[in-house]
Amino acid sequence: MGIGADIIADDWHAALAALAWQVDLGATEPLGDGPVNRYEMGDPVRPAAAAVATPVAASVAAPSGYSGAGQDPVAVAAAMAGAAKTLEELQAALGAYDHCELKRGARSLVFADGNPKARALILGEAPGSEEDREGRPFVGRAGQLLDRMFAAIGLSRTSPDPAAAIYITNVMPWRPPANRDPEPAEIAMMRPFLERHIALVDPDVIVVMGNTPLFALTGTKGILRARGGWTTALGKPVLAMTHPAYLLRNPAAKREAWADLLALQARLRDGASG
Predict the structure, then answer these.
(1) Could you tell me if residue 70 is inside a domain?
(2) 3-state SS assignment for residue 241
């Protein structure tokens, strides 16, 4: 098969993914009965999110020669995370961290998935039951929807091309019992590992999906108010989006999610600092 045929095949798969996403949005007709003047619809432009708020926990310098015994869990996390020079070392450090009670009730350490060279890092909340079983983030129904969402703008966790790839991780690497929300103290313990994770991957853009990642990076909540807006955290542009699990419960919100995906696509196309 020649180069031209490969391009046509790629375009076909991208178009199919976009069509599947439009069906998820509720589209039933390829064309309307008449033209639509979008300027008369008065669709308001969402204001940008507020400037960076105080993070959950500031980075704590690693104490020299620390043993971990009797120390603050956040300080221990900062020391262990700061010593990691690679993603593999960071994963090992998380596996050795024993100050978070969630670890004791979880089956798996769910670290990340996707291409670590991707320009876009997708940050979720915590593993669910299926993620805990499989050891990868976003593999259940919400994860399948997430894959369709990003495929609709030409991004995939399996792409070897950084420009067409996403990298996925969570604030919490262990499943909370009964899928409860992580507590602020638990988020604070994971903040140093999250900071180091983002520094090692060094994405152009971070997408926070849901309240917990929004809170972990910016110290603020209210994802329904923040979604669609841009802010900055850890020196990176951050786009807030609703979690795919919310979209499964509220299908009408997929229209807003599609607008957010287009905003991400435009930001990546024009340059993350644009």
Answers:
(1) yes
(2) strand
**pLDDT level of residue 144 (50, 70, 90 thresholds):** very high
Question: What are the pLDDT digits (tens) for 87-135?
Answer: 999 999 999 999 999 999 999 999 999 999 999 999 999 999 999 999 9
Q: How far is CA 166 from the centre of its chain?
A: 9
Phi, psi of 207 (to 5 degrees): -110, 115
68 by Cβ neighbours in 10 Å (0-12 / 13-18 / 19+) ranks as middle
CATH value at residue 256: 3.40.470.10
The secondary structure element, H or E, covering residue 120 is strand 120-124
User: At a CB cut-off of 8 Å and minimum separation 6, what does 152 contact?
Assistant: 17, 18, 20, 21, 22, 258, 261
Measure the CA dihedral 98/93/81/88, to 10°.
-160
The amino acid at residue 26 is G
pTM: 0.76
